């Protein structure tokens, strides 16, 4: 689980824990040292959540921009497990670099380029080192995690040129990796959560996981359609358990769409279908109303 410190990465790790998986939880923030994010969440906490959920969580401090560190991680997995069944590429960490609706000539260049390093270069480095191990045996799966489905991102400008490129790169990576993994009997897909109630998002909106439905931010749409990080975790777990997942290789999927197909729910028992809601309700300028969408 590459990029498991917080947000979707933590939710996916815990969702895999629910399925009984052994999950190597990687990231830069530990109990001894924080990353440039300077937030309190740690990979040790994520690993403990995995174990509590029913799996085995193993925290490993890794900077996925450091090729040697990623190579050492993969060598450790090989030595300890002898196999790699699932690679989840959720590495990001670029929220503090985002400059909303800023033209490329106005956007801070270093921030934009670092966003691409965090969202694209890390995924390339990790796949380069990990997929030799994953492809040794048929049945392996790579899940690229991004923001937005292929259909939605193909029709919409996403925040800025730098952000747009970073998030659309993962869509293309799943397609190309599917091509390269096909002869080895392995698959690659891309998955997007919806409006995620990450730790940072809850703080920004001044709510908690206990009272998020009271939020009036964004005209009430956040309260209507947002989802917990565990929802996308259950989506990834469902894909990993699907014996027919190879038929999906190269495809783009959302947590809400996969919930309709596999029948899992979010922690509150609902199944929010965010990307359809974003187009049909919020994008259409209609008032917040989740009826038919969760």
Outline the structure in words.
This protein has 294 residues and is of the alpha/beta class. It has a single domain, classed as Rossmann fold, CATH 3.40.50. The protein is built from eleven helices and six strands. The strands form two sheets. A four-stranded parallel sheet has the order 3-4-5-6, sandwiched between helices. A two-stranded parallel ribbon has the order 1-2. Strand 1, helix 2 and strand 2 form a beta-alpha-beta unit. Helix 4 runs parallel beside helix 6. The longest helix has 26 residues. It starts with 6 loop residues before the first helix and ends in a 12-residue tail after the last helix.
Q: What are the SSEs and their pairings?
A:
Elements lengths: L6 H12 L3 E6 L15 H11 L2 E6 L5 H15 L4 E4 L19 H26 L6 E5 L4 H6 L5 H21 L5 E6 L6 H7 L15 H5 L3 H13 L10 E3 H8 L11 H9 L12
Helix pairs in contact: 1-2, 1-9, 3-4, 4-6, 9-10
Q: What characteristics describe this protein?
A:
single chain, 294 residues, alpha/beta, Rossmann fold, four-stranded parallel sheet, two-stranded parallel sheet, 6 strands, globular
Summarize the structure.
The chain is α/β, with parallel strands linked by helices.
Largest β-sheet summary: 4 strands, parallel
* CATH homology superfamily name: NAD(P)-binding Rossmann-like Domain
Share of β-strand residues: 5-15%
User: Would you give the CATH topology?
Assistant: Rossmann fold
Q: Could you estimate the helical fraction of the residues in percent?
A: 40-55%
Number of domains: 1
What value does the average pLDDT take?
A: 96
State the end-to-end distance: 27 Å
Shape assignment: globular
Q: Pairing-aware structural class of the strands and helices? A: alpha/beta
Alpha plus pi helix count: 11
Compute the number of strand runs.
6
Topology order in helix (H) and strand (E) letters:
HEHEHEHEHHEHHHEHH
- Sheet with most strands: strand arrangement: 3-4-5-6
What is the CATH C level class, in words?
Answer: Alpha Beta
Q: Which architecture does the CATH hierarchy give at level 2?
A: 3-Layer(aba) Sandwich
Radius of gyration from the CA trace? 18 Å
Q: List low-confidence stretches.
A: none
